[in-house]
Amino acid sequence: MHDLSDIATWLESHPIHHESAVHDTLPDPTFITQGETVVSFSTNNYLALANHPRLVAAAKAGLDRYGVGNCESRLLGGDLEVYRTLERRLGELKHKSDAVLFVTGYMTNIGVLSSLVKAGMLARLHGYRAKTRRKYAYYSDEFNHISIREGIQMSGAERHTYRHCDMNHLEELLKAAEGTCPIIVSDGVFSMEGTIAPLPELVALAEKYGAILYIDDAHATGILGEHGGGTSEHYNCYSPCIMQMGTLSKALGAIGGFVAVEKEIADVIRLTSSAYGFTCPPPPDQAAALIAALDVLEEEPQRRQRLWDNQRYFVERMAPLGYQILSTATPIVPVLIGDAAQCQRHAQALRKEGIHVDAIQFPAAPLGQARLRFMMNAGHTREQIDHAVAVMARLAGHV
Ligand code: PMP
């Protein structure tokens, strides 16, 4: 997509200006700021779980029982049952026998991808080939999250980037690197594009070339699939070669990250990943809230249903307005504007009407492809969606 020198060049011609509004409440998806009520189309709190009474009650009980922080790595300072239970439940959601919890999704990608090539990890993961093939190589989608790109860079292993979801390009690269231990890495749902990775094709290539497939399901966990299991459940596509990464700070409403794998692999990660062994987990009250979030995910499927109903309602109403919508596959609906300044003006116009939408521009999106990223939410009302569409119609010159 671009490298750090592109960003440096871009920064030279763009004065750095950062202004982040301070709000009085968190978006559920409506928030209050300076007495004004604003509807957010830019929160990852997709299922409006962050202030769900059951999560709040579980966190309060966790605070009373454990206090506010863990204050030590679980590896060194001792462990708590609440973390073990959360890991077991996350493993179940992802059809794996275990999961390893990290403080955030960002740290999960950094921690796992940088350490995967250590300690004969691949030999343990795959049990074959790795003994004779000592050179590891990463294959990463060009639009993967920055934490993936940084984690791969930190590993020091050979790395290749394939064009977004282009399986022919990925296979060309895999063929060219015969003799290495390949690790393919892809977002399950791409956060700026709203696209879903072609998992069955990725698995076929991983199996053909003896690769590990690492899927970042940050925007799919809790959302895709009948039970919110993510990209694998969406396609009904499971394989022992998949490592299932996810975050707990989006649909699940709290904080944390995890990678779900088989038990023996999980233990290797615990021992080799510095981001597990040399830093703290999320506070225990958050782990308690997350167990409640997994219960709600199972017991209130209507939340996921409402999210998808809202997504379809928005997409249908936007269709006649003539905008280019980059993907309609997920609750992330990016509306292409192109010019960055124009995109900012649209976002400001929406904000004046009490609607918050992020204007995504370079380096988060390719140059010249600025977009308004509408993130749909289970808590949006039809009136709120109608209002957003009416403003978009006006901006398109329809009224
Ligand atoms: N992966 C992807 C695809 C993401 O979009 C994000 C968050 N924007 C992360 C990882 C990091 O997750 P967290 O916020 O839990 O650190």
Order of helices and strands: HEEHHHEHHEHEHEHEHEEHHHHEEHEEEH
Number of strands: 14
Q: How would you classify the quaternary structure?
A: single chain
**Alpha carbon gyration radius:** 21 Å
Report the CATH superfamily of the largest domain.
Type I PLP-dependent aspartate aminotransferase-like (Major domain)
Give the biggest sheet. 7 strands, mixed
Uncertain parts: 128-132
Query: What structural class do helix, strand and pairing data support?
Result: alpha/beta
Cα shape: globular
Describe this structure in words.
With about 400 residues, this protein is of the alpha/beta class. The protein folds into 2 domains: about 5-40 and about 300-395, Aspartate Aminotransferase, domain 1, CATH 3.90.1150.10; about 55-300, Aspartate Aminotransferase, domain 2 (3-Layer(aba) Sandwich), CATH 3.40.640.10. About 40% of the residues lie in helices and about 15% in strands. It has 16 helices and 14 strands. It has helices spanning about 5-10, 55-65, 75, 80-95, 105-115, 120-125, 145-155, 165-175, 200-210, 230-235, 265-270, 275, 285-300, 300-320, 340-350, 380-395; strands at about 30-35, 35-40, 100, 135-140, 160, 180-185, 210-215, 240-245, 255-260, 325, 330-340, 355, 360, 370-375. The strands form 3 sheets. A 7-stranded mixed β-sheet has the order 3-9-8-7-6-4-5, with helices on both faces. Strands 10-11-14-13 form a 4-stranded antiparallel β-sheet, covered by helices on one side. Strands 1-2-12 form a 3-stranded mixed β-sheet. α4 (about 80-95) packs parallel to α13 (about 285-300) and α5 (about 105-115) packs parallel to α7 (about 145-155). The protein is globular and about 60 Å long. Belongs to the class-II pyridoxal-phosphate-dependent aminotransferase family. One of its GO terms (molecular function) is transaminase activity. Its cofactor is pyridoxal 5'-phosphate. This is Aminotransferase class I/II-fold pyridoxal phosphate-dependent enzyme. It holds the Pfam family Aminotran_1_2.
